[in-house]
Write a sequence for this structure.
């Protein structure tokens, strides 16, 4: 059965930004990636993002990225949207990654704001539209000024929303006021890219999440969004509050490092991180475990 989507929810509602599993020697572990993808879909995800920030995309090669997309599509592509990260700070390279992801079977693209270069808004507009023009896949843009250095202005969002293949935004701007205006004026499907703001963003019109903590609490995130969309805001709030220690603990330090440590504590396939990321210290690991247990995660 193919994954369901509507114009309002083009990539589903609950997506996990999946880590890229590596073997002990740092090689790509496609078998582990397929097992992890199946586990996450079974746990309630109707979409997965691969080759994103949490997938350590800065340190994987183009061929590894394509291989990962193919493997995940083979494992869960008939049950979930497989959204491939294709954004870099080089538009031509991003176009290449987008085309390769489409060939590998991805059902959508995640394209982050170009980082480091700090282009003007016109540069952002041309970057995103050039990538969207390069193929036939629907595009989720990714607004994360804390990493990219440049926010996407609401006026630019409105222009981007006119493109037929730019259908969604992953919001990690952390500004509910700007999100409210952008949701109201663009018509884009809005996805929370900041787990602590999952419920607040739903309250102003978001349709779902692209989550990091979904690696360990996907059933709870599914219950939260289902409760909210069915009108049980009280239940959604209770779930949100229960998960606060998880949201806090998973971001005490770099998110990929904590996710892979949490997965190791649960016996899930993830493996090590690649430099310049490093494993958690013993103290950081113990604190993470305390946070997870406080949020109801079984270790």
């Amino acid at each position: 059965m193919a994954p369901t989507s509507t114009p309002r929810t083009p990539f589903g509602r609950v997506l996990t930004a999946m880590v890229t599993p590596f073997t002990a020697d740092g090689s790509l572990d496609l078998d582990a990636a397929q097992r992890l993808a199946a586990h996450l879909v079974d746990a309630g995800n109707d979409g997965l993002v691969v080759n994103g920030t949490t997938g350590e995309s800065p340190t994987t090669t183009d061929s590894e990225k394509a291989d990962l997309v193919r493997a995940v599509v083979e494992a869960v592509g008939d049950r979930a949207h497989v959204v491939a990260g294709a954004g870099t700070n080089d538009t031509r390279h991003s176009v290449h990654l987008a085309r390769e992801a489409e060939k590998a079977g991805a059902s959508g693209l995640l394209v982050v704001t170009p980082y480091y270069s700090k282009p003007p808004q016109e540069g952002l507009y041309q970057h995103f539209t050039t990538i969207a023009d390069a193929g036939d896949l629907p595009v989720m843009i990714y607004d994360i000024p804390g990493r990219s250095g440049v926010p996407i202005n609401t006026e630019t969002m409105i222009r981007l929303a006119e493109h037929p293949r730019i259908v969604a935004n992953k919001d990690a701007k952390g500004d509910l006021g700007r999100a409210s205006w952008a949701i109201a004026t663009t018509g884009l499907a809005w996805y929370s890219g900041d787990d602590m703001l999952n419920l607040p963003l739903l309250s102003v019109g978001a349709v779902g999440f692209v989550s990091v903590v979904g690696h360990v609490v996907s059933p709870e995130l599914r219950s939260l969004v289902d409760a909210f969309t069915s009108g049980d805001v009280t239940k959604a709030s209770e779930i949100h509050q229960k998960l606060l220690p998880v949201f806090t603990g998973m971001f005490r330090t770099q998110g990929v490092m904590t996710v892979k440590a949490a997965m190791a504590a649960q016996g899930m396939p993830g493996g090590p991180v690649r430099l310049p990321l490093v494993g958690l210290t013993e103290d950081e690991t113990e604190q993470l475990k305390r946070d997870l247990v406080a949020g109801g995660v079984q270790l």
